[in-house]
């Protein structure tokens, strides 16, 4: 794959920045001329990743969410990371309907949604050091 362009963004872990992250990622990915459906998939997956960083990583405390996007000739890679509390059991967290915040009425579908809308999702997490979610979406050429 050939790298075409990349960008990095950092923003505070405030819930209203979820929409900001989603729109920035979609605008950046639009350089590849994706379909409306591909853009919607990217926005949905980024929303879930950013929300997880804010709600679970920082538990609504102040922190920084980082987003790194790379455009390749075949698609877009989006990396969302935090320096929050980390995930104790990544495989358990990936299970549909699992939530560590049942009192907040969380659906437990964040990773499932990301995996459904993107072509690849990798999760790396370390307790008290944070979580990094790397997602890839192929963009079909017209």
TrEMBL record:
InterPro entries: Anti-sigma-factor_SerPK, Anti-sigma_F, HATPase_C_sf, HATPase_dom
Enzyme nomenclature, EC number: 2.7.11.1
Sorted UniProt keywords: ATP-binding, Kinase, Nucleotide-binding, Serine/threonine-protein kinase, Sporulation, Transferase
Pfam families: HATPase_c_2
Reaction equation(s) it catalyzes: L-seryl-[protein] + ATP = O-phospho-L-seryl-[protein] + ADP + H(+); L-threonyl-[protein] + ATP = O-phospho-L-threonyl-[protein] + ADP + H(+)
Occurrences of domain Histidine kinase/HSP90-like ATPase (ranges): 37-141
Any one GO molecular function term: protein serine/threonine kinase activity
Top-level taxonomic group: Bacteria
GO biological process, alphabetically ordered: asexual sporulation; negative regulation of sporulation resulting in formation of a cellular spore; sporulation resulting in formation of a cellular spore
Summary of the function given for this chain in its UniProt record: Binds to sigma F and blocks its ability to form an RNA polymerase holoenzyme (E-sigma F). Phosphorylates SpoIIAA on a serine residue. This phosphorylation may enable SpoIIAA to act as an anti-anti-sigma factor that counteracts SpoIIAB and thus releases sigma F from inhibition.
Alphabetical list of NCBIfam families matching this protein: spIIAB
Family, per entry: Belongs to the anti-sigma-factor family.
Name this protein carries in UniProt: Anti-sigma F factor
Annotated gene: spoIIAB
